Amino acid sequence: MPYLFAVLLFLLAPIAHAAECPALLNHQLKTLQGKALNLCDYQGKPILVVNTASKCGFTPQFDKLEGLYSRYKDQGLLVVGFPSNDFKQELSNDAAIGDFCRQTYGVKFPMVTKSTVVGSAAIPFYKALASASGSAPKWNFHKYVISADGKTVKSFNSTTQPDDPEIMQLITPALK
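^ that's the sequence the OP posted. Answer follows.
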């Protein structure tokens, strides 16, 4: 009987884990490479979210985004990009976007499939970010920092650099 109880606990643990996930993080996404990205896996860690576009004047921010990711990923930081053509500056398909980001800026942080991030057609995750922060993207490279508790969201406009002191003050205390 104790063995059966242990097996049941083992089998039910993922369900319990999912139930504990904050609603804001309870999203399954797909990367440009077709891999699953479950944001619940990052609860307890800070997350920097940014909507991107390959042909935007803010595109050089990819360098700083990748710099933050490579420096802090082992301490728990997730940087995740959401390519979007909402402002008519993104390439036509996921393969072209992935190639551009990797070849031009050496991007290794997760980039999800091309998404709508504003308006009624926005993906549910971006609707949740806008609701939690009170601010939807007004242009490409709008940033959100999700706290380690998975509930608090702070919004930053496109001109704010990824390594801005205010962003870093939100991220670094939660790193391990």
